[in-house]
Write a structure and sequence with these properties.
single chain
Length: 121
């Protein structure tokens, strides 16, 4: 079983479906593109930040979700931007905070207004 993202003309993922595993003999992305009339790209729930959890060749950086953008230049699925101040990490295609989270073992919450971490009290 494999998963495929259906992508509209704005490169937004509108649906993720379960489909056939890719094979050397048949192009399932092309099959689903023709069947649904929109672009279709394979995705894997084992992908996160450009690393495949099963230690196989990674592809498309992240598992697609509804509302994600498919970036055809990076060949990557990118989640919607959670906060305006966040920056896209070009290696992982994940969003990074503009300020590193403290690593002192305390709990913090992000304050978008001040673009800073505030200790959770």
């Amino acid at each position: 079983m494999a998963h495929y993202a259906l992508i509209d003309k704005g490169n937004i993922v509108t649906q993720v479906i379960v489909g056939q595993h890719e094979s050397k003999d048949y192009d399932w992305e092309d099959h689903y593109t023709k069947k649904y009339g929109v672009t279709c790209k394979r995705t894997s729930y084992n992908m996160a930040g450009g690393i495949h959890k099963r230690d196989i060749t990674p592809f498309r950086k992240n598992y697609a979700g509804i509302g994600f953008i498919y970036d055809d230049v990076r060949d990557a699925f990118i989640a919607p931007k959670p906060y305006e101040s966040m920056l896209l990490n070009n290696t992982t295609c994940l969003w990074d905070y503009s300020v590193a989270k403290p690593t002192d073992g305390k709990f913090y919450n992000w304050n978008e207004d001040t673009e800073s971490w505030e200790e959770d009290t």
